[in-house]
Structures are given as C-alpha cells and as structure tokens.
Amino acid sequence: MLTRMSVADAKKHLSELMSRVVYKNERFLIERRGKPMAALVSAEDLAQLEQEPTASKGLRAAVGAWADFEDLDQVIDDIYRQREQSTDRPVSFEA
Questions:
Q1: Quick check: pTM over 0.85?
Q2: What residues make up the domain containing 58?
Q3: Is residue 6 within 8 Å of residue 30, measured between CB atoms?
Q4: What's the mean per-residue pLDDT of the chain?
Q5: Could you give the count of Cα atoms lying within 13 Å of 41 in the half-sphere of its Cβ?
Q6: In a shared domain, residues 4 and 30
C-alpha cells in the first residue's frame, strides 16, 4: 500500500513510519508542495529494486549488451553482409 504525505508530516512521524514500513510492509511517498520528492520503503524492497535484472531496463540494457562483443565492427559487418545476401525480403541500405 502506498501512502502520500508531506515532508512536514513525514518528519513529525518518522519513527512510526519506519515501523509501519518494516512491520506492515507499507510504503510512503513523501511530497513537497504536492510534488513527489522521495519514497520510504523497507531495506528489503530497496535491495530487490537494486537487484533488478538488466534486461528489464530497456534500451540501456541493449546498449550495455554490446559491451560483451570484443569486435563490434566485425559483428556489424556480418549483419550487413547477411542482409545483403538474404533473398527472402528486399532490404534497402539507403537512408
């Protein structure tokens, strides 16, 4: 369950909020002037968020995956060569 609250309220009740996070699995979104600024979550939730698989991070993961290839230029050349030799569909390399 996510509860929104102001910074002032969070400051007043920090000890209570920490207990609710740990023992009741609650989460708090702390806002300043109605704008979300921070979240109060359990250490377990934070650890889980930080261990999120790279594949779920979209484009950043795709770009990072290229780092595993030692000779990226050769891989790209092979892709273009295979496309040029393909007969199953027309491919244009003109921009």
A1: no
A2: 53-87
A3: yes
A4: 81
A5: 13
A6: yes
